[in-house]
Amino acid sequence: MPTVTIDNLRVDVPNGTLVVEAAKKAGNVIPVFCYHPKLAPVGMCRMCLVEIGTPRRGKDGQIEKDASGNAVIAWMPKLQTACTTFVSEGMAVRTDSAAVADARRGVVEFLLTSHPLDCPVCDKGGECPLQNVTMEYGPGNSRFPVELKFQNEKRVPLGDLIMLDRERCIQCARCIRFQDEIAGDSVLGFNARGRGMEIVAFGDPPFNSKFSGNTIDICPVGALTSRDFRLSARVWEVNDAPSICAHCSVGCNIFIGERDHQIKRIVPRENEAVNEIWICDKGRFAHHFATAPDRLTTPMLRDEDGWRAVSWFDAFATITTRFNEIKSQFGANALGGIAGDRVPNEDLYLFQKFFREIISSPHLDHRVGWSAANAGADLIKQFGVGTETNLGVLDKNVAVLVIGADVEEEQPVLRLRLSASAQRGAHLIVANPRVTKLAAHAKQSIVYNIGSEAYFLIGMLFVIAGETLEKTESVTNWDAFKKSLESFTVEQCAEICRVKPEKIRDAARAFAHAPDALILFGREAMQTMQRDAAVESLIAALMLVTGHIGKKNNGVIAFYPHNNSTGALDMGILPDYAAGRVVARAKGFSAADLANAKTKALWVMGADPAAHGKFSKPNFLVVSELFMTETAKLADIVLPAQSFAERDGTFTNTERRVQLFRAAIKPRGDVKPDWWAIQEMAKRLQSFNVSELQSLTLKHWNYETCSQITDEIAARVPLYAGITYDKLAENVKQPRAPYGQGNPSDTPTEIAMGELEGTTSGIAWKSIAESDAGAKFELEWREPRQHASRSDSRQQIRLAVARSLYDRGTMMSKTSILQPRVPIPAIEINSLDAEELGIENAARVRVSFESRALEMIAHVDGHVPPGTVLIAQNLDGTANLPMGAPVKVEKI
Amino acid sequence: MTLPNIGALFKGMSVTLREMFSPPVTYQYPEVRRPVAPRFHGRHELKRHDNGLEKCIGCSLCAAACPSDAIYVEPAEQTDAERYSPGERYAARYEINLLRCIFCGFCEEACPTGAIILEHNYELSYYDRRSAIITREQLLVPPPAPDKDTPRAMRDPGNLYAAIPPVKGGVE
After folding, report:
1. Cβ–Cβ of B160/A236 closer than 8 Å?
2. What pLDDT was estimated at residue B158?
3. Do A120 and B76 count as a contact with CB atoms less than 8 A apart?
4. Which residues in chain A are closer than 8 Å to B167, comparing Cβ atoms?
5. How far is A577 from A334, CA to CA, in rounded Å?
6. CA-to-CA distance for A88 and A17, rounded, in angstroms?
7. Positive or negative: CA dihedral A87, A92, A93, A99
8. Closest Cα of chain A to B149: distance in Å?
9. CA-nearest residue of chain A to B77?
10. Could you say which DSSP state residue A183 is in?
11. Which 3-state string (H, E, C) describes A403-422?
12. CB–CB of B88 and A232 under 8 A?
């Protein structure tokens, strides 16, 4: 560990640390513009110039010492950039000398000569590094005649989301480097040279990246601004409330910037364990649904003349009467509930408590729409990834198998983190029925035949068994399992998967040899899991026999679609599982049955079954929603709900991390949180079903705040033990993860920017493998589903259904600025199939399947294997596509 | 019986008689108003340029400087098609709560364009508190000519600097 002296302050830093980081660790902040802790250093802005010297060596190679025994420092004749210089033993740095002060003043003065006098009108004012550095280090007066200031274009749209101001740009290249190094979409670049050097966006549409909004955060001046937020408020007038993104299940930490109870902007909140400092564009811009003018603001009752607004009191009275009627006529078993997986944990907990303990009905489910394909709950409970896992710091000791997932469309920020890990040496294997964006960063990209996940996994297990790479400490029946494997060979599996056997062998060896390994599976794998029970047990087997369970950076992650999908599984919004993922006493109807009016009364909360297929209205339908959705239009009573921005609560992300979010704006109109509505109904139905459970729980229906429910969950649900409100709200100091940035040594550097304060990092619950180190598991063998052989499937083209991040869902549709980004419905078809059918790229085709026909554009490329076509669901006209159905494609 | 001191009486009355015929210093308010000092802090006004464009660019520096939080500014974006002020930003909502205002003049000092000026109007009374909140329309001075009102389309679109009339020999 070299020791560096910075202005007479000695500090020990790991090998490969940059001087600017070492100085920060010593408490000395060197001003920078182009340097950023997450990007490789370039030394472009020259703001970090300092005096650097190293110990002088004499002719004999020994370090010269002066009279008092200290090493003589040979100061470098010119100032050096601290951001590009790595520390060495005995190095000395001077930041307080006259030369350094002169250099800083000079650099600022040069930057300001070309920088416009825009501070009063610039969005960045108030959070501008250039302003701050000028105040600290810049000259007091300007010597530059203002008439001669550089003039350039001031409103250059880079795509629909970002506006560039060329005058303000200081050419630090942070945006270009972010796009190249971190986002992986090289859509920005420099054009021209000298003062006229300017940023240009490539591609059509320009700046086509799902992470373009992050460049606004890292731009040190106001050159890049958000077209949504720009010029709508000054940053010191905007209050930042800590929250969690409401979209996918990465659970990015955000700040909701509000002024006057309007959401002005969303910015990322730093959480090194979840999203570092990034959010995707959907999370950044798609917040307008929370403040949309067509939000429901009062309870609505439907009578003969249409809808009329009623008070909460009357609404509850009506619901109570009808529930009691239905119970006396049909029994308590005729009531059921669907709660969607966007609803916070507290509301979900009370929802199932209401149905199971007050109503005594087991009919609960959340799997509607995207969540209908959710699978792997048992897998997660047993082998979910270790609680200290940090996807951002995986290195060459980790193998990551991503199977059946398009990570950029499903969990965008995780795609960034996996790409970064792959760059850092993690062995990334991306296996998918088609080529996805992450495959470009992967060590191995495997494209298998759609639906053949099971055979791919069997192939891997066969290789592991054949080369005796297995570790059987946690396994009880390896020999029996091995026998079942022996009915296959790698070549057979490779044939079914349409993958070269060598690829399966390489993947299996890498996976087994790696000290740590993760399996991440997503939408396409889950759709196969719905029909093939073998996939889940094979993933479990693969983890068990390679010993990758129960510790950090090991385990399984499932990519669920919504921000609280894991929470819905944890809280037991399932017909057969209760809160805490314990098996329920009685088994109820599933969501599909509930949507078919198998119960006489139904309460739908935060879900829209009518928009996702056939829905038959039961005798009595109550809907708690934000908007008048398709399901709400059919309801008898609609109760308005609070969005995530108007209330407190917790969400559980895909790594099983429970995170707290806080209210940012006041509730619209008369909206109340769902947990309050459930509580009021519980109070009114206390004598609904006399049971021994009820007498125990009657006392527990007096919640005044959401935090009381959080604490009750911590007390009564063993899975969430210890996850109390206070613990979640605690400010934890998180050290920044070590990175190497162009670091020539082998040891990762500390990003010595200090520890983070004021962040709540969330608490994850332990999987079974992690909480019980000595647990033994039994390998389950299930016969994989028969897969159509090659000759059969060439005659039949099958449909694969993908997810697009930007779609026509309710939450996205209220944000007009993102609408141009929603893709046009298109079908991806392999060139071999296209040739047979006579379809060329960008031709209009008619796609027929089951009883429907859609018209769309064809994309002929190498992304899908022959025999498969791919359509993204939930775009214009592409709702409810049946996965795996045979289709007919013909040119129009 | 002593005579009253008629001399002192006349002496005192002479002051009265003398003053009776000299002009009074009373200003007959409200018909006549006493002129105020040039830098008197009265009610604010939002000034315009000579070409009619508003000087206020909606930067909220006045709101930030105000010690009593009396000013509320909502900026908005504008283009040459409908131009209010030079540049890309103008104050879509600008309100001053005269009951909070302490007439210190910090807003005038903070304003980078010289838009908000405290003028000489001190006759500010209201029947209800709502009327004390004066809006942008009440604050703006009238345009110098009817065809120079805002918003209007500028005839030289795209060149923001054309919107600021050139000033010879100095900085505006």
Report:
1. no
2. 43
3. no
4. none
5. 19
6. 9
7. negative
8. 22
9. A231
10. I
11. ECCCHHHHCHHHHHHHHHHH
12. no
User: Are the Cβ atoms of B88 and A234 closer than 8 angstroms?
Assistant: no
What count of other Cβ atoms lies within 10 Å of the Cβ of residue A74?
A: 13
Report chain B's terminal Cα–Cα distance, integer Å. 83
Chain B residues closer than 8 Å to A222 by CB? none
Pairing of strands B89-97, B133-134: antiparallel
- Non-local (6+) Cβ contacts of B111 within 8 A are B61, B62
Residue of B nearest to A155 (CA): B88
Q: What would the two tokens of residue A25 be? A: 């660790």
Question: pLDDT grade, residue A760 (50/70/90)?
Answer: low
What is the overall mean pLDDT for chain A? 89
Tell me: pLDDT of B168 over 60.
no
Q: Tell whether A231 is within 8 A of chain B (Cβ).
A: yes
CB-nearest partner of A234 from B60, B76, B87:
B60
- Segment (H or E) for A329: helix A312-330
pLDDT digits (tens, 9 = 90+) for A181-206: 999 889 999 999 887 889 999 988 88
- What is the Cα–Cα distance from A698 to A721, expressed in whole angstroms? 22
* Cβ distance of B61 and A120 shorter than 8 Å: yes
| 8 Å CB contact between A730 and A511 | no
Separation CA A125–CA A130 (nearest Å)? 9
Closest-CA residue in chain B for A156? B158
Q: Is the pLDDT of residue A136 over 80?
A: yes
Q: Are the beta carbons of B88 and A233 separated by less than 8 Å?
A: no
CB contact under 8 A, A121 and B87: yes
Q: How far apart are the first and last CA of chain A?
A: 69
| Helices A534-545 and A453-466, packing angle to 10 deg | 30
Q: Report how far apart, in Å, the C-alpha atoms of B84 and of each of A152, B94, B144, B150 are.
A: 22, 13, 14, 5
pLDDT > 80? residue B157:
no
Strands (E), A688-839: 732-735, 755-759, 763-764, 797-802, 826-829
**pLDDT tens-digit readout, A465-477:** 888 888 888 888 8
**CA B44 – CA B59 distance, rounded (Å):** 17
Closest residue on chain B to A227 (Cα): B77
Q: How confident is the model at residue A428 (pLDDT cuts 50, 70, 90)?
A: very high
* CB < 8 Å from B in window 104-133 of A: 120-121, 125
Distance CA A341, CA A371 (A): 8
Q: Where are the alpha helices (DSSP H) in A26-118?
A: 98-114
Nearest to B77 among A146, A230, A233 (CB): A230
Residue ranges in A433-500 assigned as alpha helix (H) = 453-466, 478-485, 490-497
Closest chain A residue to the Cα of B75, Cα to Cα:
A232
Residues of B in contact with A125 (CB under 8 A): 59
- b/e sequence A117-148, b meaning 16+ C-beta within 10 Å: ebbbbbbbbbebbbbebbeebbeeeeeeeeee
Report the C-alpha gap between A852 and A653 in whole angstroms: 36
Q: Give me the helices (H) in A546-691, please.
A: 565-570, 591-595, 630-634, 674-684
Of A4-8, A445-449, B135-139, give the range with the top mean pLDDT: B135-139
Distance CA A178, CA A40 (A): 9
Could you tell me which chain B residue has the CA closest to the CA of A145?
B171
Question: ipTM of the predicted structure?
Answer: 0.86
CA distance B163 to B51: 8
CB pair distance less than 8 Å for B59 and A230: no
At what angle are helices A453-466 and A478-485 packed, to 10 degrees?
120
* Contact (CB, 8 A) for A636 and A621: yes
**Chain position carrying tokens 């944990």:** A345
Question: Span B69-85, mean pLDDT?
Answer: 90
CA atoms within 13 A on the CB side of A377: 24
